[in-house]
Amino acid sequence: MPSSQGPDPFAKLGLGTVINAAGKMTYLGGSALSPGVAEAMAAAGRRYVDMTRLQQEAARRIAAMTGAEAAVVTSCAASGLVAAIAACLTGPNLDLVRRLPDTQGWHRVEVVIQKGHAVDFGMPILQLIRMTGARAVEVGSINRTHPEELRGAITDRTAAVLHVISHHAQQDGMAALADVIAIAHERQVPVIVDAAAEMDLRAYVEAGADAVVYSGQKAVGAPTSGFVVGRRDLMEACRLQQMGIARPMKVGKEAIAGLLQALEEYATQPEVASQALWQRAHRLQHLMAEAVATAGMGAVVQIDVVSDPTRPIPRVRLRLAAGGSRGAGARELVRRLEQGEPSIRTRNHHVDSGIVLFDVRTLEEDQLDVVAHRVAEALEEGEEKTGERQWA
Ligand SMILES: *Cc1c(COP(=O)(O)O)cnc(C)c1O
Fold it and tell me: How far apart are CA 370 and CA 17, in angstroms?
């Protein structure tokens, strides 16, 4: 749960207040930490510790929690992916580890990825593959991959198959993880799963993935951090990358302590299991509908509560009514909310279809009313400014 307690260090820098209705986004600082996580980080920061032993102990606990053979803590999911891909190139061989990203003359350097998984999560995942010295081999089309195409793309040059599970990725038409694992394992090729923002910490290991990569600062509410779980030899090879290309991506004692505390809290009180989250979404829906109706804008929008298609996360969905340019109207609404004070950030993956989403996981109770009224005001302002039905 977010916490607004204590002085705001960002205000001191002259940065305005941000109300986050976008979700746990890296570009908005990931998660607001629980008091327990913040305290664990502060306490860790005041002490010294043997970092190798801290990493080992953290890994042991995370492996137990996720049902994996082994684990490794990283500075974020992106660096976890770098480590996992590099691990598939080098194995636990320090000589090879220290040669990356120069893979000239190496035979097994290809990473196969379905075209619909070639996402940009802030950087292109294809660039992340190249960073290690591997070569990305895209398979299939952006909207469809047949298992046969995948089978054909895997050769004796394939070091790994990278499978992305995310709202960023194409959802339909791609080969399913179970098929990907079966096909890759026919050729003894490991499968890396990018599950950065996923909430289920066991499912992909259970499905047979060789390495699964998570963000700490997304679903589990940790500080910026990441972890990779999976096969013991690959996790050992991930760890070795700290003496090579992953060294500039090291994770500190504060983040490890915060991650462990957050994982513990996540295991005992998974946020989404809570009815409270759905209740909060319905409360925001109600407040927003009321404010919009009072402003006389009730006819231009529809407001309901929907679940994320891949995860049980409730979100308030505001849809501009049919007609005109819904995408332009929604973009204008998003811009007005962002430029206001406080700045309200929304979830804009479907803005071009005239849809603005509000994630309530990152909102505090007293912010619901502010968001509802700012939405009504922004709709009203738009109408007054142009003197016409801009939104419909
Ligand atoms: C957020 C995200 C990443 C990167 O995670 P960081 O922890 O910010 O490095 C990678 N892949 C996907 C699918 C993501 O959503």
Answer: 12
pTM of the predicted model as reported, rounded to 2 decimal places: 0.91
> Exposed (0-12), middle (13-18) or buried (19+): which is 386, by Cβ within 10 Å?
exposed
Task: Kindly give the distance from the C-alpha atom of residue 227 to the centroid of ligand 1, in angstroms, as a whole number.
Answer: 11
Sequence-ordered list of residues with C-beta below 8 angstroms from that of 52, at least 6 positions apart, any chain? none
* SS3 category, 119: coil
- For ligand 1, the distance from its centroid to the CA atom of residue 381, given in whole angstroms, is 36
Written as six digits, the tokens of 245 are 């290309």
DSSP structure string for 175-242: PPHHHHHHHHHHTT--EEEE-TT-S-SSHHHHTT-SEEEEESSSTT-PSS-EEEEE-HHHHHHHHHGG
CA-closest residue to ligand 1 atom 12:
196
Query: Six-digit token pair at 188?
Result: 């003894």
From 25, 26, 125, 128, the mutation candidate for ligand 1 (largest count of ligand atoms within 8 A of CB) is: 26
Cα separation, 151 vs 154, in Å, equals 6
Which amino acid is residue 209, in one-letter code?
A: A
User: 74 alpha carbon to ligand 1 midpoint, in Å?
Assistant: 12
User: pLDDT digit string (tens) for 87-137?
Assistant: 999 999 999 999 999 999 999 999 999 999 999 999 999 999 999 999 999
User: For residue range 14-38, what is the model confidence (pLDDT) as tens digits?
Assistant: 998 999 999 988 889 988 999 999 9
Inter-residue contact 207 to 214 (CB < 8 Å): no
CA separation for the pair 141, 154 (Å, rounded): 16
- Atom index in ligand 1 nearest the CA of residue 78 equals 9
Burial class (CB in 10 A: 0-12, 13-18, 19+), 51: middle
Contact 374, 363 (CB under 8 A): no
The answer to whether 338 and 345 are in contact (CB under 8 A) is yes
Q: Radius of gyration (Cα) for the chain, nearest Å?
A: 23
